[in-house]
Specification:
By secondary structure, the chain is mainly alpha-helical. Helices cover 60% and strands 6% of the residues. The strands form two sheets. The chain has a six-stranded mixed sheet, sandwiched between helices. A hairpin with a 2-residue loop joins strand 6 and strand 7 (536-541).
Length: 568
């Protein structure tokens, strides 16, 4: 149950800043040491760069072509930092790092208010040892920022319903849901929290004050609509009055195809309904869920309206994403701070039991063996490793061995004294190693497009023009020359036909593409081999590789990416 004991401000500040500063070191480590890595990071970074270079902030673009898959807020954050600093490499990891630290603060503060500072500390440690939280905090994928907005919304709802009635925080929750929606459509998910709250209210299992449940709750949606309107109305106005069919197609795509249709009839990342339960949660939420298998936890849930409500919300969120056929592990990240909150509360109630100490020891052995196995594969130059990082595997093997020895050394040192602090310390050391030495080792292997684009630029010479087909965003981002492409959203055959038409109009034009036997209009035997990257062989086609004739494209599409500033 909630504590009525006043918070000791000195204990609060001392505990919070210790946790926050250590977490900040881990989360911020490595910023500026690596480039954007596939699959998602180059796309968002390129869109942000084009926002700044084109001055068009309402309609995200990729290579001059509209990017209709996501609303713009996350790209706005990236673009703003780029506009302020002039450096993409130094800033693209900052938004998610800051968002994760904000989520950490919300978890700490609401736990301290609902229970006590000790619970707040344990909740934060639970969050920090769950691998998924740190993984996403150190990426430039959109989900950590969405999780931040959702966590703030949940923070406000918890404050209003279970700490102290606050119309201000209740309305703010809805506003952050709106911000979450225009970052990624699922920002409304805190609404599901109202289901257990209303159940408690109407079943009389928890007595809410009149100021907590009354007619003013209906004003919350207005705050959400106002936030949505700040982006939606200008976008709709510009699209309607632009006479630009691309803008109107973006409007329709982002409002319909990327929301309800994508959820109900996904066309990518298809996985079975149990995907999160079997393939994501066991590894990425370890060891938080281990308490679910104990009677003591369910006794706490039975007597705590807060734990009951939050647990129901976590379950509903996982269920929501499980229903959709399209699933990625990072979709359920927003549930993690709230799960850590209730697990921290339960852990504070029961203390460090023998069985949970054993769970942590199993974690030590598991991670130690994982890194040791990776080191052995590197030292033996296993094909499973060389196909990913090339033949120069010795430095990687040394890094993995150091990580492995670190986990085993700490386990042997502490033996039967392993606790949350020790477990987090082992994680912190590992994350810092990965974010420094690991980034410098992995970066060349994760960004081969940079070398391929440099080679293509040399081959076409200073007077050549380069077109690209079958490309990924990293080729746009790392290009040292202006580019032409023929619609990322078109079929590969249409891209081939448009590329052939473009080359036929003027000499000294070239096309870079992925080697594919389905290529039309070009003779692959006359292609120049470039290099292998992202599981594909990349080639350069000049006019000698053009077939005498080629079927006309159904629609002539060309998008240009001028070189206003090199990636840096």
């Amino acid at each position: 149950m909630m504590s009525t004991t006043p918070i000791d401000s000195m204990d609060y500040k001392r505990t919070f800043w210790l946790i926050f500063l250590v977490a900040a070191v881990v989360i911020l480590a490595g910023i500026g040491l690596r480039d954007p890595w596939p699959a998602d990071e180059p796309r968002f970074v390129e869109v942000a760069r084009e926002m700044v270079n084109s001055g068009n902030w309402f309609f995200p673009m990729r290579g001059g072509e509209l990017y209709p898959d996501k609303p713009p807020v996350f790209m706005w954050l990236l673009a703003s930092l780029y506009w302020l600093t002039g450096s993409l490499k130094a800033t693209f990891l900052i938004p998610n790092a800051v968002a994760s630290l904000v989520a950490l603060f919300c978890t700490f503060d609401i736990a301290a208010k609902l229970w006590n500072v000790k619970t707040a500390r344990n909740a934060c440690l639970m969050l920090l040892i769950a691998p998924q939280f740190i993984i996403q905090s150190k990426s430039a994928q959109i989900d950590a920022t969405v999780a931040c907005w959702i966590t703030i919304a949940m923070y406000g709802l918890l404050r209003h319903f279970f700490y102290q009635a606050s119309f201000k925080w209740y309305v703010a929750s809805w506003a952050f849901m709106g911000l979450g929606i225009i970052t990624k459509g699922v920002g409304f998910l805190p609404l599901l929290f109202l289901l257990p709250v209303l159940f408690l209210h109407f079943s009389s299992k928890y007595r809410f004050e009149k100021m907590q449940v009354n007619w003013t709750l209906w004003l919350g949606p207005l705050a959400m609509l106002l936030v949505l309107a700040a982006w939606l109305l200008p976008m709709l106005y510009i699209a309607e009055h632009s006479n630009n069919p691309d803008f109107m197609a973006y409007r329709d795509n982002i409002l319909f195809k990327q929301t309800g249709e994508r959820y109900a009839d996904s066309w990518g990342h298809i996985n079975p309904w149990y995907y999160f339960l079997v393939s994501v949660i066991p590894a990425l939420w370890f060891p938080l869920y281990s308490f679910l298998f104990t009677k003591a936890f369910w006794r706490d849930v039975k007597v705590s309206p807060v734990m009951f409500s939050v647990l129901v919300w976590v379950a509903l969120l996982v269920l929501f994403f499980s229903i959709s056929p399209g699933k990625r592990g990072l979709y359920i990240l927003p549930a993690l701070p709230m799960l850590a909150l209730i697990m921290g509360a339960h852990f504070t109630n029961i203390g460090l039991t023998v069985w949970f100490r054993r769970v942590l020891q199993v974690g030590f052995v598991a991670f130690g063996m994982l890194f040791f196995t990776a080191a052995v594969l590197c030292f033996t130059k296993s094909h499973a490793i060389t196909k990913e990082i090339g033949e120069h595997t010795l430095p990687f093997g040394i890094l993995f061995l150091v990580m492995s020895l670190g986990w085993f050394a700490i386990l042997l040192w502490k033996r039967n004294k392993v606790d949350l602090n020790i477990y987090w310390a082992a994680f912190a050391i590992t994350w810092v190693l990965y974010s420094t030495a690991g980034y410098m080792l992995f970066n060349p292997e994760r960004t081969p497009a940079k070398g391929i684009m440099a080679e293509a630029a040399r081959d076409i010479g200073p007077d050549g023009e380069l077109g690209v087909t079958r490309f990924k965003e990293q080729f746009l981002l790392f290009s040292p020359v202006p580019l032409i492409h023929f619609s990322y959203l078109s079929s590969t055959q249409e891209q081939d036909r448009n590329a052939w038409l473009w080359m036929s109009e003027k000499p000294n034009r070239y096309v870079m593409t992925a080697k594919d036997n389905s290529i039309e209009c070009f003779d692959l035997s006359k292609a120049k081999e470039l290099d292998r990257a992202h599981s594909k062989e990349w080639i350069l086609l000049d006019e000698s590789a053009m077939t005498p004739t080629c079927e006309k494209p159904k629609t002539v599409k060309r998008y240009s990416l001028p070189l206003k500033a090199l990636y840096e």
